[in-house]
């Protein structure tokens, strides 16, 4: 398709995922969901052109598990901070050859850790209360 650096591909994937999350928060707004889905596809296509290290993907999965633990147990944000660190390191070592820069990895990890912690907390509270009065 077109040559893209892994930093740009990671940015496209992150912005696309934020668009898809916006669609989950505000259902019915079609433009952010469709645009986000296309950006995720383009970003993943750009990332798959490079050799990937599966340890980075495992660290990213661990980060999302830690975000889920924070939503469930609320241990003074310790799992959230550990999840943000795991996500930053996981995205940094995701691509083997032209590595993703620390600035790009941290720029993706900070908003995503906050957003995922918030969304999973809202989902857990809605499950416990059987109704959500947040939105």
Describe what this molecule looks like in 3D:
The mean pLDDT is 86. This protein folds into two domains: 1-49, no CATH class; 51-135, no CATH class. It has helices spanning 6-25, 30-47, 54-73, 78-92, 102-129. Helices cover 75% and strands 0% of the residues. With 135 residues, the protein is an all-alpha fold.
Please summarize what this structure is:
This protein is mainly α and 135 residues long. The protein has 5 helices and no strands. It folds into 2 domains: 1-49, no CATH class; 51-135, no CATH class.
Proportion of residues in extended strands:
under 5%
Radius of gyration: 16 Å
Judged by helices, strands and strand pairing, the structural class is mainly alpha
- Domain tally: 2
**Multimeric state:** single chain
Biggest sheet, open or closed, and with what strands and sense? none
Features:
mainly alpha, 135 residues, flat, 2 domains, single chain
What topology does this entry show?
Layout: H1 6-25, H2 30-47, H3 54-73, H4 78-92, H5 102-129
